[in-house]
Amino acid sequence: MGLGAQVIPLPANNPIPEIERKFAASKPDAVVLGSTAQWILAETDDLGVPLIDIHAEPPAEAPPVVECDEDDLAFLLLTSGVTSDAKVAMLSHGNLAWAQKAIQARVGEGLQHDDVSLGVLPFSHIFGLNMVLFATLRVGGTVVMQSRFDADESLQLIKKHQITILSGAPPMWRRWLHAGDDDTVMSSLRHASSGAAALPLEVFHGIRDRFGIEVAEGYGLTETSPIITWSRGIEIKPSSVGQVIEGAQVILVDPDGTPVDRGDTGEVVVRSPGVFKGYLDSAELTDAVLTPDGWFWTGDVGVFDDDDYLYLVDRVKDLIIVSGFNVYPAEVENVLMEHPGVRGAVVTGVADVDTGEAVVAHVLGTATAEELATFARSNMSRYKCPVEYRFVDELPVAASGKLIRRELR
Amino acid sequence: MTSFQFETAPELPGADRIARVGLAAIRATVNRLWDIDVHGLEHIPADGPAIIAPNHLSFCDSVFIPAALPRRVWAIGKGEYLDDWKTKHIFPAMGMIPVDRSGGDAAKAALDTAARVLDGGHLFMIYPEGTRSRSTNLHKGRTGAARLAARCDAPIIPVGHVGTLAIQPPDQFTMKPGLPLTIKFGEPIRVEEFGDPDDPRTARTVTDALMFEIGKLSGQRYVNTYAGKDDTPDMPIPTKIAVPPGRAARAPNLVAPDSGEVIDLRKDSRGALAAD
Q1: Same fold for the domain at A94-246+293-316 and the one at A319-408?
Q2: What number of other Cβ atoms are within 10 A of residue B140's Cβ?
Q3: Mean pLDDT over residues B140-168, rounded?
Q4: Does A276 or A106 have the greater pLDDT score?
Q5: Contacts of B262 in chain A (CB under 8 A)
Q6: Which domains does chain B have, with CATH numbers?
Q7: Could you tell me which chain A residue has the CA closest to the CA of B256?
Q8: Distance between CA B181 and CA B30 in Å, rounded?
């Protein structure tokens, strides 16, 4: 970044073909390999771009540091890939700096120079990169690096380094909840945050009951650098992602752009200095989400309560429309999960001559289709009830904890 | 005509004595001029609060539905109705509580008024579509009824009716006598059956379920857009956000044919639907 170059952080543990695909999408001029990526050198010496080993002899004279403007691009980030094709989001220095400052703005609750963050979220992801690494370094704080997630090791690091800021994805929080036997291990924490996917209520309550801390959920996307809402610094309402961060504007709208009633659900549309500059080499993809006056359509459906706390419902793309009625897969999945014979459920849509679309459930568990049909009918409006049950051996779940529904479509 | 129990409510606006006489006169007139086919009265609780939630097609819905109910019902109306000679007597007699929509937080005032009615153990009527459907389709419901139900722990009674549009088409002052009219009251909907009443997501879930039930009763086609354009959110926000120029129309959400175990329940569920 000091060279004025644009950085594309990539996870070091991807298989070679995936790395090649990511290079093809982001077109780097050179690749710097850190210590966790040394294995790549052993596998191949030709990825079509110059490879620079970070352990190699440094040049005799350091290149000059280049001054950058706010609008200069700093990072090219591959979006997490829950949607179909990887997209490369262009983020400027100004985008990232605004988000780092925005989280400071919750008075008295911002990061301090003596804070110590655990760097366990991957820095190839915007949450770990900007909200943990850069935000902490910006105020002169310390980041303790954990290169691979291991719940027990995390707890040891928290204790050893008296970690004050802990940010994780829901699967990490679930593992921390059940790791180790020292219930006081998190007593040094000032703040605990979760993002990237919805934190299950039982995990929130479990962490609170065991460690005595409340995990503050936040919400954002790569394209928004990422912060849009956060529960840090305000009273935490379980299952809400908090209030809109200062400096950002959020409106919930219908598909034609009309704001919904207060208290009603709509697509989250945001404008902030953190909103990205577009997708690399794709005006078409950019035009699909960004308006000329700077409103970014997130593709997430949410609702505000009377205290301006945002609650997320589901992704617009996953919506199933049955006889004109919206069916959010997450709601149907949550109902099915209440059946004792269901360990996992993913809901998708299927074409239907009468209703346009209909609901299909992919189920992991021992319950029969007839049992589930009866259960669904007594717990949901009829148009939400699956018309088919498909029994599967496993369900596709991303590392962040998000279900990958497209794999079942 | 259904038997009728007049409830006194000195704590609410509108004089009981005038309402008793007015309502009796209206019920007698309606009874003489129209033969209303009423179904589902067993779903109206004999006492205690409930929200009456009908589809809305004609101005005269506000006459016929209260006249068909076995109990006195209240509703909110524009304060301007009291300035109009045509409505200043009949509306309060029908249970209208005027709300001044000119200043302050009118929506909150309306909701507080409705809560007073329900907390007093009475029936309260609200059109979930918010305004008359000019398209004759059943429109997306607004969440006020669901939020009111959560706040006051009251059931919502879906109501579907057919015939009022012919009796009094839009912009007509008179009601044509002798035309058929059917009013169906559905099974009560309880908020807690759909989720945590305190979770704001529950209101939309309940509202969609309510509209689904109203649609079954009225036979209307559902469209997922608000009726009318009179909504005034209380935030200083644009009236409309531009749709990104390259945003594609929504693709249908399809599943590829599957080779695994597939049990098709459509026939069963349709059969049950048809039997409803």
Answers
A1: no
A2: 26
A3: 96
A4: A276
A5: 388, 390
A6: 16-223 (3.40.1130.10)
A7: A409
A8: 11
Q: What is the pLDDT of residues A57-97, one digit of tens each?
A: 887 888 888 898 999 999 999 885 544 467 899 999 999 99
Smallest CA–CA separation between B109 and chain A, in Å?
Answer: 15
> How many interface pairs between A and B have CB atoms less than 8 angstroms apart?
171
Q: Where in chain A are the domains?
A: 94-246+293-316, 319-408
Print the SS3 string covering A213-260: CCCEEEEECHHHCCEEEECCCCCCCCCCCEEECCCCEEEEECCCCCEC
Helix (H) or strand (E) holding B37: strand B36-39
Region A144-159: mean pLDDT is 95
DSSP states of B157-204: EEEEEESHHHHS-TT--S--TT--EEEEE---B-GGGTS-TTSHHHHH
Q: Express as a percent the part of chain B with pLDDT over 90.
A: 52
Q: Which of A304, A351, A373 sits opposite B200 (nearest CB)?
A: A304
User: What pLDDT score was predicted for residue B2?
Assistant: 67
Nearest to B212 among A256, A311, A381 (CB): A381
Size of chain B in residues: 276
State which residue of chain B sits closest to A312, comparing Cα positions.
B201
Alpha carbons B72 and B56: distance in angstroms, whole number: 19
Closest by alpha carbon to A75, among A223, A291, A273, A228?
A223
- Please name the residue of chain A whose CA is at the shortest distance from the CA of residue B263: A388
CATH of domain A319-408: 3.30.300.30
With respect to CATH, is domain A94-246+293-316 assigned 3.40.50.12780? Answer: yes
For A17-31, the pLDDT digits (tens) are 888 888 888 888 988
Note whether A146 and A154 are within 8 A (CB). Answer: yes
Q: What backbone phi and psi angles, to 5 degrees, belong to A56?
A: -70, 165
Mean pLDDT computed over every residue of chain B: 82
- Phi-psi category of B176—alpha, beta or left, where left has phi over 0 and alpha has psi -120 to 50? beta
In A, which residues are within 8 Å of B107 by CB distance?
Answer: 262
Q: Is B118 helix (H, G, I), strand (E, B) or coil?
A: helix
- The residue in chain A having the minimum alpha-carbon distance to the alpha carbon of residue B242 is A257
The pLDDT confidence band at residue B30, using thresholds 50, 70 and 90, is very high
Which among A254, A297, A323 is the nearest to B247, CB-wise?
Answer: A297
Picking from A251, A234, A48, A14, the residue whose alpha carbon sits closest to that of residue A125 is A14
Residue B235: the pLDDT is: 36
User: What ipTM score was computed for the predicted complex, to two decimals?
Assistant: 0.73
Of A199, A166, A213, A223, whose CA–CA distance to A312 is shortest? Answer: A199
Confidence of residue B268 (pLDDT cuts 50, 70, 90): very low
Residues in chain A: 409
* Interatomic CA distance for residues A23 and B53, integer angstroms: 57
CA distance A221 to chain B (A): 18
Nearest to B143 among A264, A357, A391 (CB): A264
